[in-house]
Design brief:
The structure is a homodimer of 139-residue chains. Chain A is of the alpha+beta class and 139 residues long. Chain A has six helices and six strands; from the N terminus they run ααβααββββαβα. In chain A, 41% of the residues lie in helices and 22% in strands. The termini of chain A are far apart. The longest helix of chain A is centred in the middle third of the chain and has 13 residues, at 50-62. In chain A, the strands form two sheets. Chain A has a three-stranded antiparallel beta sheet with strand order 1-3-2. In chain A, strands 5-4-6 form a three-stranded mixed beta sheet. The first copy, chain A, has two domains: 1-83, Orthogonal Bundle (Arc Repressor Mutant, subunit A); 86-139, Ferric-uptake regulator, C-terminal dimerisarion domain (Dna Ligase, domain 1, 2-Layer Sandwich), CATH 3.30.1490. Chain A binds chain B through residues 68-74, 90, 92-93, 99, 101, 105-106, 109-110, 112-114, 117-133, 136, and chain B through 68-72, 90, 92-93, 99, 101, 105-106, 109-110, 113-114, 117-133, 136. Strand 6 (120-131) of chain A pairs antiparallel with strand 6 of chain B, so a sheet runs across the interface. The structure holds a DNA duplex (25 and 25 nucleotides).
Chain lengths: 139, 139
DNA sequence: TTGGATGCAAAAGTTTTGCACGGTT
DNA sequence: AACCGTGCAAAACTTTTGCATCCAA
């Protein structure tokens, strides 16, 4: 199982809780909040405490196995499996569904900005908001 | 005073607390957090409670007089006077200073995205992270 | 065996809410 | 006078932490 390898490569011990969390995140096409992970795990009879969920997410985020997202309109952090590579999101304001955008429209712009401001650019976060086809109908 | 007009035009009563909060936000070139507003107001001998600060910010945000920012790396929401028009931010990862970027590098892109996804695009949030010239030196 | 991982409970921090009172219009 | 705005205290909610115990390596 490559999830176990992910953990080992990063010096993290292989525990039920960690593999289960990584597994859920890897299966999900949507970023997931900590409380949802807590509930899903306990439904699967993998009893974990909230502290462990948060501590696990922190460890996985530190090791870059998982990415933490802070999104306007959400009151809590979301986490997703890090499939590497740079991503942006199209977020439906109706159903809150999140779609990943593969292509980055900002290629080249960071260089321009660096010249204008003398900042060293480390990265950027871009989220686009709108309404998905379904939510357009149900209006 | 045009701040009083801002309030009246939006059906909000003109109170010490509201004008003071709008005033601070309007003076500030940086987005401000609720607790900072609370402290600044009380230093100015305008005694307000935390609930009022939050309720005021909620009212002002609803009326679009103020914009609420959720920024990765910050644990609390920031608020800024809404100078209208579309803005992006260049955030220094060292000193947390926030610089507004006037030009939007995404002009035109939303139309492309709409065609690709059939979403109605409502807007976007873009933040760029980096290190300001000062923080580059003190490294 | 040993240090990392977990559970539990409690704390911290931000934000929200209920209710009574006070101020603006 | 009517109704909105405010203060206070308590609650809600997410996230963090201390400490004892447990388990993977």
């Amino acid at each position: 199982m490559d999830i176990v390898d992910d953990l080992r490569r990063n010096g993290l011990r292989n525990t039920k809780c960690r593999t289960a969390i990584l597994d859920i995140l890897e299966q999900s096409d949507q970023p997931v909040a900590a409380d949802r992970l807590f509930r899903e795990l306990n439904e699967k009879d993998i009893t974990v405490s909230f502290s462990t969920v948060y501590r696990t997410l922190e460890a996985l985020t530190d090791k870059k196995l998982v990415t933490k997202l802070i999104i306007a309109g959400e009151d809590k952090a979301l986490f997703e499996y890090n499939r590497m590579g740079h991503r942006h999101y199209l977020i439906c304001l109706g159903c809150k569904r999140i779609l990943a955008i593969e292509h980055c429209p900002l290629e080249g712009y960071e260089e321009t900005l660096k010249k204008e401001t003398d900042y060293v650019i480390a990265g950027h976060k871009l989220n686009i908001y709108g309404y998905c086809p379904d939510c357009q109908k149900n209006e």
